[in-house]
Amino acid sequence: MQDFILNKDRFFDPNPGVRNFAREIYQTIKDLPIISPHGHVDPQIFVDNKPFPNPTQLFITPDHYVFRMLYSKGITLESLGIPTIDGSPVETDPKKIWKLFAENFYLFNGTPSGVWLNYEFNIVFGIKQKLNGENALQVYDELQEKINTPEFLPRNLFEKFNIEVLSTTDAPWDSLEPHKKIKDSGWKGKVVPAFRPDGVTDISNPSWKQNIKKLGEVCGFEIDSYKKLIQALEERRKYFKTLGCTSTDHGVVSAYAHDLGDVEAENLFANALKGTSNQNEAEAFTAHMLMQMARMSVEDGLVMQIHAGAYRNHNKLIFEKWGPDKGADIPTTCEYTKNMQELLNRFGNNPNFTVIVFTMDETNYSRELAPLAGHYPAMKLGPSWWFHDSIEGMTRFRQQVTETAGFYNTVGFIDDTRAFVSIPARHDLARRIDSNFLASLVARHFISIEEAIVIAKDLTYNLAKQAYKL
What we know:
Layout: H1 16-29, E1 34-36, H2 44-48, H3 55-59, H4 64-72, H5 94-103, H6 112-124, H7 136-147, H8 154-160, E2 163-167, H9 177-184, E3 191-192, H10 198-201, H11 208-219, H12 226-242, E4 247-252, H13 262-274, H14 279-300, E5 303-308, E6 310-311, H15 316-322, E7 330-331, H16 341-347, E8 355-359, H17 365-373, E9 379-381, H18 391-405, H19 423-443, H20 449-467
Parallel strand pairs: 1-2, 2-3, 4-5, 5-8, 8-9
Antiparallel strand pairs: 6-7
């Protein structure tokens, strides 16, 4: 069988005039350190620094990009070994799960997941065959052998990937014990937390009361009022900062932000405690808390991220049996000009404030987001996210925002991954797409090749580092 080798010019324009420029630009950035300022990798893997259990748990179980595609073709999550909330039985044979995955690997052709996985297998692990049902167990055994060697321990991979800094995402009640242990271990890898308070700012969350209780326990006082909630959040942000936190993250359906005033906020909090809140009240409270989070960011310097436009847990059957983050979050339309006006008018001109806005609604790039970021000093655009974190999605993002917001009102690339070994794959793809986009500008004489090389380094490294204060 012929070796499977990734083409060195993959994803570059077939026009040789553009491709040659893309190749030249890419060569200047391909080996730059990785800045990963937002993601969901479990920091405990760097504390334990043990071999990953098996290829199935490394590539399939944590990656909803992978199992959502398989599920869409009628392959059950039980058969893929995805753990259920109640512990009901699922497939436990990792080789059987891997065989099922390999037999259906063709489903990922043309998708970003396919691009990432091919990179991981071929570049990270040196697998020289394209995965399929016939070679599934041979590839599995080769991967298993490699992940049991010191070279593929989490800390060694972190260094091999040339990651300069990796940010996790953490609830306000998290102890951050893994972060403390990493810091105290003497290892030089930089892993920092990010503050995500959604579990206590969204009163429609079924676990809200439980989360409020956990937050109170870690703070040492009962949170029985809105005022106490604000106190707790301010204290926890301060604690997160002691372990290197530089950002907050807010996953909201709408970017609507509105200050209700303390009295109304207290009333809504009291209703939530009594269990009498309705959806309108929940949306109003979330809008109010976005204003409060922005206020806190002005005061403590944490960079605010707003991930808007995701309709979370759309598939109720999946949510009830497997919980959140199982591939059932779906994009929805999202308005920003009116919804963010109050927040931006109050804080958007403040030099101490940075808000990075992400969207799943591509129709908004040129209409609202680029003009807003091209005006307000505090606002930056996060890169194409989730379903648009792809070859064409990243290209569309650059095409739609650059003319109005430029390159320097964006923050480079953020991988937002749970799958640790996909990090270099995702960053390599982003570097190639940005190189290709810049090459097209050079070929059409918008910018010079010298300017393109400077911009490429900024998009790859400097902008994320600066925006996230890393």
